[in-house]
Amino acid sequence: MPKHRLDLIDRKILARLQKDGRIANNDLAADVGLSPSPCLRRVKALEDSGVIRTYVALVDPATVDLPVNVFVSVTLEKQIEERLDAFEEAIRHRPEVVECYLMTGEADYLLRVVVPDLAAYEYFLKTHLTRVAGVSSIKSSFALKQVRYETALPLHHLSV
Fold it and tell me: Where is the HTH asnC-type domain (predicted)?
């Protein structure tokens, strides 16, 4: 569904589902001012169009012994398509890497790596990241405290 086709009701549905993806359809319908059947049709249309990609459970990292967040800037020797593709393919298969972005600026990639402790990060760095062909520089920054974390996208900029 193109972004310009999202009306006020669609935006309300998306905002509510971003807060609680397990909300019952009857409750969602009541919250957005629809009856259940049209609400369910709209949710299905948002799913089918790819606006809603999937539903997930957000797990508290500390409760599963993953309290360490490392932001890693990676620079490649050459920024050619084959090297970029090879790096991305290598990173896609690493469970410690929960986010990876191709960047502008000094570094080519920015990764967010989640691990239980410094020893686990050192192991990941030595046995995986430094072994990816074409990597010329790795700079790691450790998060001391998470000040804000949101998964819900801000939708206020969308117009009818």
Answer: 6-67
